[in-house]
Amino acid sequence: MKNNRFVERSITGALSFFKDAIFADEEALKKGFLQARDARLKMLMVFVLILAALFSKSIVFIAGIYAFCVILALASSINIIFFLKRTWFFIPLFSLCIALPALFDIFSPGEKFLSFKVFFVPLSITKQGLSSAGIFFARVLTSVSLCVLLSVTTRHYVLLKALRVFRAPQVFVMTLGMCCRYVYLFIEIIQNTYMAIKSRAGGVFGIKNSQGVVAWNIAALWQRSYVMHNRVYEAMLSRGYSGEPKVIEEFDFTYKDWFWLGTAILILGLSLWQNHYLN
Amino acid sequence: MAKPLFELKDVYFSYMGKFPALCGVNLTIEEGAKVCVIGANGTGKSTILNMLDGLIFAGSGSMKAFDRNITSGVMSEPGFSRVFRKSVGFVFQNPDAQLFCPSVKEDIMFGPLQLGVQLDKIKKGVDIIANRLKINNLLNRQPHQLSIGEKKKVSIACVMAVEPDVFLLDEPTAGLDPATTRDIIDILLEENMAGKTIVTATHDMHIVGEISDIAHVLGRNKKIIRSAVPDEILLDCEFLKDNNLVHVHRHMHDGRIHAHPHLHTEHH
Ligand SMILES: Nc1ncnc2c1ncn2[C@@H]1O[C@H](COP(=O)(O)OP(=O)(O)O)[C@@H](O)[C@H]1O
Ligand SMILES: [Mg+2]
Fold first, then answer.
1. Does residue A240 lie within any of the structural domains?
2. Is A249 exposed, middle or buried (0-12, 13-18, 19+ CB in 10 A)?
3. Which residues are near ligand 1 (CB < 6 Å)?
4. Which of A16, A88, A111, A160 sits 20 to 30 Å CA-CA off A209?
């Protein structure tokens, strides 16, 4: 029973975290530096900075890009705790797990840095291993931070529209947008159904029972998504849709946007040049 | 006598061939009329409106609209379907299906954009409609994060943006507060005064008298069992009770429980 509660709490917790993390747009509505930038050029700028971080082989340089990213976050009046929490605690932790084996001499032979034994297996951390794992971690952290920065400072649908810079077809962008909306809707349906079941069952139902409920829920969800799909299509037809959706695209960029894109390109250039120079 | 816009003759329809939804419906709707389709849950109101909007087609029997026999073939003629979509606007029962754009503003603009209206004209239209429905403050919000009532208003705005000649409304006031209901009815009445045809499906007896000159009642047998002026139907308590349109209301009177049918025509 206790176990069940734990699962229950983590699932509902994960759902609302997911909802907040992906669909909240209060940060995007604040007035700040990045919020004022044109979405298309901002997207390009982030893209260029990520490339710079990926190409650079110097951890100091990548740290510099990361610092730039944090400064941008500050200039965009983003709640910095919220920003760091989101980037530091979640995604890079996974990458640390991936990068961890590379530390050891089994995977990265080289100069021994630190040696110890785990269950009688001699292991040593090598300098080469340490530096490649460090760079890998720094790259992931920087790219993830840049992406998070882009997504929290831009409203979702604007971001989707900005995908058009990369020549994504209109139908694709629109479908993607609808997917996002229906993911949101289905999270709500799950939460509401869950609440409804709980209110009817008084929150007391055994593991066996609740597994049944979950299975039934998934089936019902498929059914509902199918019905919903049909309804949405009918609603589109009813309003004159006839194959290719027509939407308007309005973006306004100023010389400032171009200036910042230029800065990003300069950083990328610097990263490439430094690579060349170091080799 | 006005010109008939829609004519349903002995229409049968069933979902996936096994769930009957309409069993021999005859219905004529004239240009400029205000008409209600009333009936309990599951009597086929939504099905009739879907058919009037050319989204589903009669299994047997026939439907005529704008002097054409409506079949899936006719609706896929680009010329006719464009004219039809421009002329008929449908407010769905479920606003979540109706609103699929990323922002309220884009949702309102979707219809006229598809129909090729000019951009500056569309933008002006959005402002006027938003003012009329008092949804100016919602324009930049995401439709799926609104309350039910707000979603309903936005759905109506989406349809008004197309400036159709016929409004089909599926339970437009279900779940709305009295003031919002009032606003919506007033807007529909204004549209009707301007010559638009209004067809409403509802089981909210409060609004039937106002938004229709004639009410068609769907019975449990999924046919129209009575068509009359709303007042006549609203006063026929036995008939309403038989068709699940009123409920017996119990309350305390002088310390005794007392039951009587509760007509949904007035508040008490
Ligand atoms: N998608 C569907 N699949 C199967 N049966 C349906 C579907 N939609 C409606 N029905 C059935 O058709 C009948 C009429 O439904 P509907 O037109 O939605 O009624 P109303 O709008 O008056 O509540 C009901 O008996 C219902 O069960
Ligand atoms: Mg219905």
1. yes
2. exposed
3. B 15, 19, 21, 39, 41-47
4. A16
